[in-house]
Every structure is written in structure tokens, then in C-alpha cells.
What we know:
Chain A is mainly alpha-helical. Chain A has helices at 2-31, 50-53, 61-92, 98-110, 113-127, 133-157, 161-169, 174-203, 206-211, 218-228, 232-266.
Amino acid sequence: MKNFSLGKYALPVYAVLAFTYLLIPIAYTFVFSFNDYRRSNIAWRGFTFDNWTSVCEAQGVCEAFATSVSIGLISTVIATVLGTMIAIALVRYRFKFRSAVSLLLFLPMATPELVLGAGLAAQFFNVGAEMGFGTIVIAHVMFCLSFVVVTVKARVASLDPALEEAGRDLYAAPAQVFWKITFPLLLPGIMAAALLAFALSFDDFIITYFNSGPTETFPKYVYTAAAKGLPGEANVIGMSVFFLAIAIVVTVQVRSSLKAKRLAKIK
Amino acid sequence: MAFAAFSHGGGGSKKSAAPVSKGSGKVALLLLLPGLFYLAVFFIAPLFSLIATSLQTMDISSGFPIYNYGFQVSNYIDVVSQYGPQIFRSFFYALLATIAALIISYPLAYFIGVKARRWPLLQGLMLTLVIAPFFISFLLRTFAWKQIFSNESWIVSGLQQIGLLSPDQYLVGTPFMVIFGLTYNFIPFMTLPLYTTLERLDVRYLEAGADLYASPRKTFMKVTLPLSMPGIVSGTLLTFIPIAGDYVNASGLFLGSTETSMLGNVVESKFLKSYEYPTASALSVILMGAILLLVTLYVRKSGTDDLL
Lengths: 267, 308
């Protein structure tokens, strides 16, 4: 029995330790975003809000951030549209070569980013395409696509077909059924997929580095700046993105938990 | 979400309730074509481009190297003999980091998926903490570890004081540090699929084991572990594959040094700094081939053929 009571506390304590480990670099980045740094942001020199109040002061940080955001938005829109179409086709229609299509969608997720990046760069190089903003977008859509399909597919599969049948029974045109019933029901899945695609695109470095030419994204900025010392403003941008993402995820979770409670009450 | 691809694969096809629209093959084709065409042009074609480039011949008669299409298989032999240590390191580091991630993640995933089952909101918040590192840039969090373990840090001087490190020994630049960084960066890829399978674990099986006088250890080995195998398989694949191709952690700018450089570091420098495209491409093809082979063998061996 002694063993049992020990086990009761061991796991929660372990979990707390593991979470601490996961959060250490985040806490470090947060603390050092308030550092009154000089040349490099390694030693603590005193507390300041300067990095937060004048983020764009460090050369190139804001431009790189803006480039990353616009690349993320464009890639997300394209990948989400293409991926949602595939997801609907996969769940709702039977066709030949189904397993070949599944394999084609699975492979990019199982391929190391290095190979995706180098392969695309070799391709662009062979056809003589100029590297830059456009080639980054092309690359990002490519690796986000499969993740969108998987995420939306789960939602399509859980959709109750009776709702669409009801629409058809009431003489709604196929387009009406789609836009008035199917699409609104799929929207949470599509939104989740879009968020995932944006996060993947925004944080990608390995593929981007091979296909970016002179265009500077935020991760690329950090990589280049790491050699001479990262400015505290980079920490500010990193932390702002972090807090925004956490806020979105926690809001979604709390809302869905409240909804589940309300539904439980009705039943 | 994305991990469902690895754990349940077939997905929607299981739901036979979904209506199959008949006679609308055209619609399906229209829905599929744009995306599949995109993947054919920007995913499949580049892979062939990579193979073609890896077989190119070099012509230095004009003073600077010019690459021509050829069928120079010897490129591969050169690459393997020249970069053997880097290739070995990639897979060795990936193996160690994957094992470390599994050991760290399993109890955590068990706690979230089984012990915290009664509190869904708490479960959700803990999962958010697991993926929290993803919300801060991959490069920023790796850089943070570099600073935390930098030569001037109190951690290093403390370790030197208690004799774990000799006075002229440091952490950044060592294989330990690279494996540490790789483990940290890819832990969420391990924890999430483990959580997905453990969350569905029927605890009555564990009770049955205890009722039949099995010790907790035996119940774990004979019941919990086999039942969580799908999560272990997808988790190890999801961590091993990206780690084997990573070049940020092992880079001299981050946690590594020239002594720790992996296959990815060679590809990066050959491709983007010295423009030796055939060498870089041959190494990438080797990585891709090795990963495909390992994945196939591993999936066969672990008996989860329904992965796709």
C-alpha cells in the first residue's frame, strides 16, 4: 500500500516539473525582453520598458515581422481553400485512386523539412526562378496543405448528414445547402485549420531559409542576428505573438467547456 | 488534430453513415484537382528535381564550377565517404533525443490523459501548456537555451564549482547540448499523440489487472504499454523525422559547434554558402531514403500497418 500512496503524489509532482521545463525558455525570453541591453542581450543590465515601447527601433525587426505576417496570411488563405476542398471530396465522395490521394497527402507530413526545402530550392534553381516573397509563399502553401486537409477532414466526418438531407428535402439548391448548412457547420474546423496553417507558416525557418533569397522573415532575422547578438526587441515580438496565441487558445477552450456544460444541463 | 493523420489514418472512411453522392464524380474531381495539382508541381516534381540534381556532373574547365545533367552515381559514394560522421550523427542524435522525449513525455501524457480525466477544462489547459513552446518562435526558444547555458551563466560556473565540469569545459557546443535542445524542441510532437491514445485508455482493464493480482509494474507492462503502442509509434515517428533533418540546434550559431554538425548543417552550407548543389542534393536524397526505409520497417515491426 505504501507504494500506492507514493504514486499518488509522484505523478502530479512530475507533471509540474515537466511543465516548468517546458516553460523555462519562454520565461527567460519574457524576462530578457525587459533588459536594458547594450550590444548583446546576455547579461542583465537593468529593468526597462524601452524594448516594448519602441519595438521598431532595432533595425529590421518590424520589417521582418510584417513580412512574416503577410506571408502567413496569404499562404493560410490559399492552403485553407485548397485543403478544405480536398477534405470535403475525401469524406463525401467515393473515387478511384483514393489511397493514392491519401498517400500523396500524407507524404509531405512525413518528409523532413530539410528535404522539402532543398527539393523546392533545387526546382526553383533549375527553372531559374528568382527567390523571394513569392517562392516563400509557394513553399508555405505546399507544407501547410496536408495539415489543413487532416484538420478539416475530422470536422467533415463528424458532420451529421441528416442536416443536409433536411435542407434538400426542403427543396434547397445544392449551392444553398452548401453555403447555408454545410459551410457554417464546417467553419470551426476550417478556422482551426487556418490557425494551424498560419502558425506553421509564421514559425517556419528550415524550408523558408532555402527558398527566401534576400527576403527577410522574422525567424530568418533571428537566425542571422543570433551570430552577433539578438536585440531585446526580438524578444518583445516573440512574446507578443506568444501571448496572443495563448489568449486565442484559452478563450476557445473556456468557451467550448462552458458550451458543454450548458448542453449537459439541457440533457 | 494533425496527429490524427498518424494515429487513425483512414479517418472519414470509417463513418459509413456519411452519404456517398452518386453520379457526381465530376464535383469530386473539381474539388480535388487544384490541391493535388499543387502538390504534384511543388512537392512531387521537386523530389525528382532533387534526384536529378544529385546526379549532376561538375565541369571546372571554365575556372568556376558549372553543373550539367548527368548520371554520376559516384556523387553518392563521395558524399557518404566524405560526410559519414555527419550522417551518422543525424541518426544517432535523433535516436537519443527521441528516446529522451519518450521518457519525459510518457508520464506527462499519462497524467493529462488518465489522471486528469475528470476535469476536462484542466486537461485542455495542460495541453495548452504542452504546446506553449510552439507559440514562441522555434529559433527564439533555442536561442534562450543557448543563453541559459552560455559559458558565462551561473549554471555552467556552478557545475564547474561542484566538479561536474572541469574549469575549461563548457556546455554550448557539446553533443549533450545539441541532444538536449533537440529533445526540448520536439517534446510536444511526442506528448500529443501519446495523450491521444492514453486519453482513450479504458481504466477498467487496469482494474482487472489489479484484481488478478498483477503488480502495478506488471499491469503497466502487460496492459497499459501495449494499449498505448499506437501513440508511441506515431509519437516516435513525429519526433524522429524532423530531428534527423534539423540543422538549427546543431548549428554553431545555436547549441552546437563544428564537432556536432549533422547532415542538415552540411546540406545548408553546401546549398546556400558554397553552392555545391549535387552534394547537397545527394545528402538530402540519402536522408529521405533512409527515413522512408526506417518508417516502413518500423511500422511493419510494430504491427501498426493501418498508419496510412
